[in-house]
Amino acid sequence: MSLGVPGVSGDVPGVSVDVPGFPGVSGDVPRCPRGLWVVPGGPGGLWVVPGVSVDVPGGPSRCPPPPVQQPPELTEQPPEQLVVFPSDDVTLKCAATGEPPVEFRWTREDRPFSGDLPGVSVSPGGGTLVINASVAGQLQGRFRCAATNALGTALSRESRVIAESETQKIPLKHPKITPKTPQKYPKNPPQNIPLGTAAVPPKIYWLNSQIVHIAQDARVSMGQDGFLYFANAQVGDTSPDYICHAHYLGPRTIIQKEPLDLRVAPSNSVQSRRPRLVVPRDPHPTHVALRGETLVLECIAEGLPTPWISWRRLNGPLPPGRAVLDNFNKTLRLRAVTEADDGEYECTAENGQGSARRSHGVTVEAAPYWVRRPRSAVFGPGETARLDCEVGGKPRPRISWSLNGIPLDELPDSGRRSLRDGALVLSRLEPNDSLVAQCEATNSHGRLLANAFVYVVELPVQILTPDGERYAAVENQTVILHCRTFGAPAPAVEWLTPTLEPALQDDRAFGFTNGSLRLGPVLRGDSGVFTCRAHNAHSNGSVSARLRVHAATRIAVPPQSVTAKKGESVTFSCGATFDPGLEPRGLLWLRDGTPVTESPDSDKFSVAGDSLTVAAVDYGDQGRFRCRAWTPLDAAEAEAELRVVGRPGPVRDLQLQELGERRIQLSWTPGEEHNSPVEKFVVEQEEGIFSPGRFQEVLTVPGSQPKARLVLSPYGSYRFRVLAVNGYGRGEPSAASAAISTDPAAPERYPMGVKGEGNETNNLVITWQPLSPGDWNAPQLRYRVQWRPLEPEGGPWAEATVESPPFVVRDTPTFSPFKIRVQALNDAGKGPEPPEVVGYSGEDLPLVYPENVGVEVLNSSSVLITWTLEGSTSRLRGHLRGYRVLYWRDGWVGERSRRHALPPATPEPPPQPGVLTVPGQASEALLGGLQPWSRYRLSVRVFNGRGAGPPSAEIHFHTPEGVPGPPEELRVERLGDTALGLEWRRGFGGILGGFLGGFGRLKGFQKFLGKSLVGSQRGFGVISAHFRTKSCWGKKKRGFCGGFGGILGFFWGGFGGLPAPHDPSPFAAEEPWRSSGRANSSLGRYRLGDLRPGTSYRVQFVGRNHSGERVAFWESEVQTNGTMLPRPAGGFATEGWFIGFVSAAVLLLLLLLILCFIKRSKGGKYSVKDKEDTQVDSEARPMKDETFGEYRDGEEKASGSSGRSLGAAGAALGSDDSLAGYGGSADVQFNEDGSFIGQYSGTRGTAAGSSGPASPSAAAPLD
């Protein structure tokens, strides 16, 4: 255990001490005799146990050697300075150890001081000096204690005693403050209040008679000298009780001075002024700061508006972490001053009127401080002792040595003492050379003293380190093997490796003076037993040490740094490897040096294996996360940083500084950036009178500028807040600043958007955009409206004052120009003069109309219309807004109504014209979208804001022929088992030249109403039609021109009806295409004959393109009614003669049916209609032979009768009994692709009932 001997530390192995008066720790072992014992211990030191009995295991045979003496060593010293008050005693403590027992003596002012004086005493058995309070004031000064025995003398530090006298009440000279303007600082600053002198200055407070502190801010504050400073005086500062209180901490006394009466008179001649520094008064102040202490620099300024103080260091940045601004930036404190803080520090006072600067020169000095202090030691005879004493300080300290309290230069030279580089060297020590040496350093800032003894004694070698000590280390570590020895002279120590070779031969080994061996970095092969040998002139000894080297712990997979957004979860992983022989071991996570632990109350941190998860990271979670893999011998660490990014935090400390009339500076302290630099600051403003509670953005400043200058509007109460913006968005706004108000003033803006226009023919309505309440500059706002006619120039202004728009001027001439201006005014005055605008009274309908209207036909669908507008512009009676062209279509060119047409039962309403509006000043317009080959008429009207004027004279014109449109409403009618009728309504595009139709036969599989119909005994035909005009043929073009007609598929009757749905028979073989002739363009229908029943046909309309090639431009499928007889599977039915016979019979039957059809279709009741149709088609002539190469003389002659009979059939299609002799009729409806979308039947129908849809895509369902 440690015996607590000053200057020596460590434990005495195998020894316990029983100190009288304290619980013993000895056991039932023999006790050595009571006395003084020297127990080896510590590097070169002794365990000296005076007056203590020692229990030693093993009995008296292991008792320590006979006791020896000990030099004096101080354990307690008096303070460097002691301030006492009249009621306090002076107590200076001094204690020391030593053998023989030490004696104490005191000196005062370097002279012996006796403890036998009245009121003075020294504690019995010790050295504590006590001076009674009654004589303390007479005995203040410098005191020092000395402790002496036969081996030397130790000195204490010097202690200065200061006795404070009773604080005197010094008469107070009232500073007379001449009343000035509310914002003007007195010509001379207030004088301070004398408070007496004291070793410890009192703390100063300014209070009023109600014991309430005087409120201090940037304008009113107290300086370091206790003065209360006003940057500018205000009427509100008037008070009769400004009271200064001085608080003395030592005697716990507060002294109150008489109240000061301050009166500030109001004034109307307040003027702003630039800052002036009143503290420091010296234009070039200098300061001396002591190392380790706190330096205080101060600048206080007066001015109007209140100046703002800022600091900077001229020769470098302010020391980070140690520079603090206090007292509204008026005080700069530098804590723990170092030599590097030398330099110039400048303060700047600014307001809107200018600035003032003052530079403080700072010099850093230091009281003496230890660099290396002397150490006590035990030496053997013949050795050399070296006592080092190295001291720093500024100015450079003076070092002096003393031996046993006597200065070295006052001792006789022994020839064995010398000073080397400030160290005291004692050579060839002898047994009687034991002493206590003092090293003292002094400069202008203080003293430093150290005692160190030199003890000369002869002792045999003892190894204090137990034999067989075990040491464990990991590779690449450094291990220290101990071999603590004791003896005088000091034993020499030698270490041997496990191979019994000198350990110091290895470059990795180093031997300490205390005998320990340092080896490193160690390798796995260094494991084994090392031997320590120690010897001196009297004896020798040895011990062994066992070393085992393990594999080092390593981080195989270190954690990776992460940057995460607020609210995300982050996982760190850490993989480690350990030596298998090391237990215990584990993995520990630390955050900024603090262990991370899971909590049952929170899932913020969770550890699973070698992973750490941080859930829902917040800004407070960021930091450095360290993974530590540990064993009893070593630890490996890897670190990763968690950075949480997000929107910046709110700014703080908003401060308003007035720069002038309605001009302020807003400053703030930026908040947290949250790892993303602030890009800008947004200043928001609340106007509390007109829009309370609503903050609006008014200014944006760069992120490096934490201040903004603002100009305020009159008559407002303003508060401000600031928010920061970074790459992740806008942060939360700061707390609102204090409110600041401005006085009313005349408006600074005039209304915008002034207009004048009438809404009646005899008035003028004046409108404008009202000023927003923020531009009123007063509680109320009015508008001064002025107007006068534009002609004559210079007429008087008429005016009216209103509170809001609009303002109506009545009884004005129609559409007359006026000059108008609108000015804002309030109780404080008129706003700026507004510009004049021209407005017009109400409009009326125009009296003029366009003339010289002309039409130029451009093509079949477009014409160019021109006109002029003549006459006086006054007849417009308004602003010309544009022209309207009204046009009507009267019909086709050459169109005549039918002779038998009946007059309508009720008269039809007149057709609505088309309207083309041409805005602005125009004289022509392009009218498009007209129909070819049509008759039109048009007129033109001018219009203003009131309406349109009279129309111009009508102009008639017609458009030329164009490409014809497709036939409309294509229909099909079943006329019999072998005949179909087609009907369509013709389209117009000029003089029609005819129609072309075609059909074909189709085989294959068809789907009908969702059911599969398969068979070869039915036909499915498709018909199509198109038409063309003479204009195409007249140019002898062989290509196709004209529109496409509808597409229609149909069935007609046959012999055997439709096959059963399950009949798998295929359709008959496909036949070649054949022509049915040309279609008459004047008819909207076409009929096909000679078709076989139960057969599918494909019908086409065919034309020619521009290259002369035939083009099928419409195609569909149709199937005739009836059933084809199935062919027998065998027998005579498959013989040729039978097939020929049946074919002849069928052909004969078809011929008979055709003859009957022709005969019936030529009945007398249809002749009138045929003739009428021929007359209607007088303008439509058959196509010329050269148009289609396929339809030449032979074909046309062969199909002439067929065409005429089909035309007759078309006429019959419109009668009630036209289908009486046939098996029935059906309307068949198709989709656009030719597929059926309805059903067919043999039901008889009328012409109206058999009419098909207008087009295949808009077909009606079949019956």
TrEMBL record:
Feature: compositional bias, Basic and acidic residues: 1168-1198
Spans traversing the lipid bilayer: 1137-1158
Q: Which ranges of the sequence are coiled-coil?
A: none
- Assigned GO CC terms: growth cone; plasma membrane
Per UniProt, the ranges with Low complexity bias are: 1199-1209, 1247-1263
- What does the UniProt function comment say about this protein? Neural cell adhesion molecule involved in the dynamics of cell adhesion and in the generation of transmembrane signals at tyrosine kinase receptors. During brain development, critical in multiple processes, including neuronal migration, axonal growth and fasciculation, and synaptogenesis. In the mature brain, plays a role in the dynamics of neuronal structure and function, including synaptic plasticity.
**InterPro entries assigned:** Filamin/ABP280_repeat-like, FN3_dom, FN3_sf, Ig-like_dom, Ig-like_dom_sf, Ig-like_fold, Ig_I-set, Ig_sub
Q: Where is the Ig-like domain?
A: 72-163, 275-363, 368-455, 460-548, 553-643
* Name of the molecule in the record: Neural cell adhesion molecule L1
Localization: Cell membrane; Cell projection, Growth cone
Which GO biological process annotations does it have? axon guidance; dendrite self-avoidance; homophilic cell adhesion via plasma membrane adhesion molecules
Q: Where are the Filamin repeats?
A: 597-673
Residue ranges, annotated region (Disordered)? 1168-1209, 1241-1263
> Per its UniProt record, what CDD domains does this chain match?
FN3
The family note in this entry says: Belongs to the immunoglobulin superfamily. L1/neurofascin/NgCAM family.
What GO molecular-function term can you cite, just one?
cell-cell adhesion mediator activity
> A Pfam family name for this chain?
Bravo_FIGEY
Question: Fibronectin type-III domain location, by residue?
Answer: 650-745, 750-844, 849-962
Q: Does the keyword Cell membrane apply?
A: yes
How would you describe this protein's topology in the membrane? Answer: Single-pass type I membrane protein
Oxidoreductase is among the record's keywords: no
* Keywords tagged on the record: Cell adhesion, Cell membrane, Cell projection, Disulfide bond, Glycoprotein, Immunoglobulin domain, Membrane, Repeat, Signal, Transmembrane, Transmembrane helix
